[in-house]
Amino acid sequence: MCWRLRKLMTRQNLVLTTLLAPVTLFLGVFFLLPLVIIGLFSILSPGLYGGVEWSFYHWNYGRIFGWADGIDEIFEPIYLQILLRSLGFAAMTVVLSLLLCYPVAFWVSRLSPKTRLFFLFLVTLPFFSSLVVRLYAWLLILKPSGLLNSALMGIGVISQPLEILYTPAAVVLGMVYIMVPFMFLPLYSAVDNLDRALIEASMDLGANRIQTFFKVILPQTLPGIMGGAVIVFIPSVGNFIVPDLLGGARGLMIGNLVEQQFLSARNWPFGAALSMIIMSVVLLVLLSSLGRAKKAGV
Amino acid sequence: MASLEIRAARRHFVTPEGGRVAALDGIDLTVGANEFVTLLGPSGCGKTTLLRAISGFEALDSGSIRLDGTDLAALPPFKRPVNTVFQSYALFSHMSVARNVGYALEVRGVDRKAREAAVESALAKVGLTGMGGRRPNQLSGGQRQRVALARSIVAEPRLLLLDEPLSALDRNLRQQMQIELKTLQSRLGIAFVFVTHDQEEALTMSDRIVVMRAGRIEQIGTPREIYRHPRTRFVAEFIGETNLFHATVDRIEGAQALARTAQGVEMLLPATGLRRGQAVTAVLRPADFSLADQGIAGRVTRAVYLGSDLQLYVQPDAGGEEIRVTARDGANAPATGAAVHLSYAPEAAHVLEAA
Amino acid sequence: MRNPIGWASLTLFSLGFFAFIYAPLFVIIGYSFNSNPVNMMVWDHFTLDWYRGLFGLAREQLSGSVMPASGYVESTGHMLAALRNSLMVASITTVISTVIGTATAIALSRFRFRLKGFYSGFLMLPMMMPDIVLGIGLLIFFVTIGMQLSMLTIIIGHCTFLSSYVFIIVQARMAGLDPALEEASADLGASEWLTLRKVLLPQLAPGILGGALLAFVISMDDLVITYFVAGTDNTTLPVYIFGMIRRGVKPEINAIATLIILASVVIAAAGLWLRARKTD
Question: Which residues, by range, are in coiled-coil regions (chain C) (predicted)?
């Protein structure tokens, strides 16, 4: 027995096992297990004073998707609305940050190497700076008595302060603001890798600038666009910090619901069910983008 | 019949160090409507800049480019009736071969039926019938080259520009494509302007060769003229293997001139235009020499085997530079160290107009 | 050939983009020097009081102002405690996640084994999983197994996803290395461990350092996971500031925020400079 074991554990295997053991144990216990537990909690019934009762209970999902019995659990369309709103906000964040970043990525890629480095540095810098602080800045700007309103009233464009803070617009603005570096970098790398001979070939063959953009440049940079979109969409769907600071009741997102279930409503199973929905959306997006990438690779 | 006329074209670039480099320094060139013209020169000679000025990707500082009488300066690249085969092929990897080839028609709004017919015929012309459904990255290098070619002729341009299109192919394929390109050109009946730094390629395909150096044209002529009668030392040395002799004319006897190099090697040259005492540079190709009983005496320092031929390096007894000689390989071919005499027909020697 | 009008408008748009990114930060910095304690949006005059207040130096000067001085002293104490917690969490997290991430990167790029594909896909998940899901997952997990929420739980939470970040960076560096060097070492008679220590690790050092720096920065700034798994006595700086902002905007936040912005600029500049020097 002993000699067989020793034969199996060759030096190579020993090294490999030692290298892989930490990550396997750590992520197994502190990443996979918690995810499984969320799944488990999402089908348990909530305890009377927080906590859970260990019995199967599908009404957590029923409350969201509409098969609640109306007695113990009540279906409220507001949950579905908030879910759809979260998807909508995330999608808008993707589209807006794409529209913002694409031209700039193009511009930066056409600069001289030194200037290019400087502007790339400027794009990445906010990533290193505190998220809360950057959102706080928008609080100062968007407040009714904030910088934007004072400025607009000062030059006489408006007489009443605009209500921007605590609206959906403020939430999307805030998310675009913090997500811009994540959209920019994959876009930039796609635009920068684009072979300029392709653009010249297109124009040489008679395509004007607009045709060249839509028929050659856009399709050629599509992988970067998809990459940026996924990277921005995923953290946006479950975001609760931005709506918490900048959104009011109309800007509430699914992340806020989850937070409420855990820290104030103390309905953990319902919160777990909501998290499962966020997780499924994320996995769906990831899998479909992987599928796309695989198909494009063939 | 003149098709492309370039007059006094100038273009300079600013180097990163702030200096000015003339890429085109007063180029005058006329290309006939059905002519295969090659721009030949070392890298940095301005040949690619000239090509890009014709296609519209570089603007001239001064001078004009006319195609069939129309000035091209005001036209952006996409409005010029000129197409280019790019060095890297620049195939659109996100499109099928057929869509690549049909691109020029697609952007002009040609309807699908007409487009498909034109794509089929263009693919047939380059020998790729039935390959339309493939993706560019499923093709070999030679096939991609053909797709790029088909794509650039599908819209029937009046002039086709080729920017070192064969440089990425291996030797056998390159030679095959040289012949095919020439055939295609005469069948299409349009002008080709071909850029290369490979003199062999230029000699094989061209109706005329334009030898460029540092933004200027050194010489324009048929391959034979360029090879046999190079005007300058640069042309002589750039095209083919060359032996150069710097000599002074001793005396003139009828059609022949007797000249002597500084080391005292005696040479017979065609007398045309020469006078006594004149310093001349004479060009003799390795194949112009033959081994004989008399002539320039020397010793073989190296013999390089080239297949059916030998390349001999002969050091003249009188001194001076080694002479390169092509000799037929065989049983009595001279070995290294052998004493030989080199002779040549005086009319084969070519005297440069300018040194 | 560039279209000059197109290029000019593109330039204008891009400069606007950078203004959009940076203007908010400058707004904070500007207001942090505004002395108006009642309405901080109205400029009064230049002051360093908010900074003095942060460091507990301005008790006397401020005692006459609208705000009671004791409030500042107390909040300063809390803030410094939160900063200390943050630094501690970030340091320990950096060490642990760098070790785990590096070991995994070496295993995945230098060995062939059956589960390799699974591992490289699986390691993307902690990065892609929304932090709120990870946060509540850990919260339920810790509570279920009866583990007290503490600094330890925060560190565990950070390590779950930062190990993946380190892994990605080190693996990228690894991909650029020549395996022949290690083969040469093995050929010359060095054991696997010796080769690892003497050949591989020194070459990987810039990647490991970059990964560690990234882990430290992200850990310092993490809000969501910490928010869920921190016990009541263990807030970190981001959570503390988040709470402060939620309770209402006070001028001292501007001063804290300005200091954080400055610190992050210094760290980022140092990191990027280090990387630029390494690649030269």
Answer: none
Helix (H, G, I), strand (E, B) or coil at A91: helix
Instruction: Tell me the nearest-neighbour CA distance from C176 into chain A, angstroms.
Output: 18
Alpha carbons B260 and C123: distance in angstroms, whole number:
81
In a domain? residue C127: yes
Which residue range forms the structural domain that includes residue B276?
A: 243-351
> Cβ of B94 and A219 within 8 Å?
yes
The per-type count for chain A, helices as H runs and strands as E runs, is 16, 2
Q: What is the pLDDT of residue B292?
A: 87
- Domain closes at, from B217, B238, B259: B238
Residue B193's pLDDT is: 96
Integer Cα distance of A44 and C26 in angstroms = 49
How many domains does chain B contain in total? 2
- CA of B56: which chain C residue's CA is closest? C1
CATH code of C211's domain:
1.10.3720.10
CA of B92, closest CA in chain C: separation in Å? 21
User: B57 contacts in C (CB within 8 Å)?
Assistant: 1
The partner residues of C46 in beta bridges, in order of sequence, read C34
Structural domain harbouring C245: 80-279
CA A67 to chain centroid, in Å, comes to 29
In a shared domain, residues B288 and B199:
no
Helix (H) or strand (E) holding A117: helix A113-128
Q: For residue C177, what are the CA distances in angstroms to A20, A249, C215?
A: 21, 53, 22
Given a cut of 70, is residue C45 above it in pLDDT?
yes
Report DSSP state, residue A50: B
The 3-class SS string of chain C reads: CCCHHHHHHHHHHHHHHHHHHHHHHHHHHHHCCECCCCCCCCCCCECCHHHHHHCCCCHHHHHCCCCCHHHHHHHHHHHHHHHHHHHHHHHHHHHHHHHHHHHHHHHHHHCCCCCHHHHHHHCCHHHHCCHHHHHHHHHHHHHHCCCCCCHHHHHHHHHHHHHHHHHHHHHHHHHCCCHHHHHHHHHCCCCHHHHHHHHHHHHHHHHHHHHHHHHHHHHHHCCHHHHHHCCCCCCCHHHHHHHHHHHCCCHHHHHHHHHHHHHHHHHHHHHHHHHHHHHC
The pTM of this model reads 0.84
The per-residue pLDDT for A163 is: 81
Are both B178 and B277 inside the same structural domain?
A: no
Please tell me which of the candidates A133, A235, A258 has its beta carbon nearest to residue C28.
Answer: A133
pLDDT over threshold 60, residue A6: no
Residue A170 main-chain phi, psi, to 5 deg: -65, -40
**Which CATH number, 3.40.190.10, 1.10.3720.10, 3.20.20.60, 3.90.209.20, labels domain A92-253?**
1.10.3720.10
Given B214, B238, B262, the domain boundary residue is B238
ipTM field: 0.87
* Residue-wise pLDDT tens digits, B194-220: 999 998 899 989 999 999 999 999 999
Q: Is the minimum CB–CB distance between A220 and chain B shorter than 8 Å?
A: yes
Q: Kind and range of the H or E element at B276? A: none
User: What is the C-alpha to C-alpha distance for residues C108 and C121, in angstroms, rounded to an integer?
Assistant: 11
pLDDT single digits (tens) C160-171:
999 999 999 999
Tens place of pLDDT per residue across chain B (355 aa) = 458 999 999 999 888 787 888 899 999 999 998 899 999 999 889 999 999 999 999 999 999 999 998 999 889 999 999 999 999 999 999 999 999 999 999 999 999 999 999 999 999 999 899 899 999 999 998 899 999 999 999 999 999 999 999 888 888 888 888 999 999 999 999 999 999 999 889 998 999 999 999 999 999 999 999 999 999 999 999 988 899 999 999 888 888 889 988 888 888 898 888 888 888 999 999 989 988 888 888 999 998 888 888 889 999 988 888 999 998 877 778 888 888 999 998 888 898 876 5
